Amino acid sequence: MTSQEQAAEAFYSGALTRIKRLIPIFAVAVLPFLLWRWHWQVGAGFALGAVLSAYNFWSLSRSVDALADRITNAGSKESGARIVGLMLLRYGVLGAAAYVILRSSVAALYGLLGGLVLPVAAMAVEAMYELYVALRRGL
C-alpha cells in the first residue's frame, strides 16, 4: 500500500469517531436557542431526543460491528439472536419515548424529533468535511 492510500485509510477510518463527537456538540449548541425561542417543553424534548439519538447511533454502530463479526468469524462471542433482539429493543425504546412525549405535549414531540435527527446533521457535516479533504489533499 502506498503512503497516499495509507493516509486515506487513516482519514476515512476516523469518520465514525468524528460523527459520534459531532452529535453532542450540535446538541449543546442548539439547546440554548431552543430554550430561548420555544421554552422548556421543546428544549426538554430536544434534550431527550439528543440523548436517545446519541445512544441509538452508538448502539447501532456496535450492533453492526457485532453482526459483521458474527458473519465473518464462526467463533464469535455474540449470538445472532441477541444482536437482533437488542436492535429491536432500541427501536422499542424510541417508540415508547415518542408515545409518552406525544401524550404529554405536542411541542415536546417536535423537540424530540429535532433531537433524533442530530446524527443526520452530523453525517452531513462529515460528508462535507470528507469532500473538502478529498479535494484539498487529493485523498
UniProtKB/TrEMBL annotation:
TM ranges: 21-38, 44-60, 81-102, 108-129
Topological relation to the membrane, as annotated: Multi-pass membrane protein
UniProt keyword terms in alphabetical order: Cell membrane, Membrane, Transmembrane, Transmembrane helix
Cell membrane in keyword set: yes
Pfam families documented for this protein: ATP-synt_I (PF03899)
GO cellular component: plasma membrane
Compartment annotation: Cell membrane
Protein name (database record): ATP synthase protein I
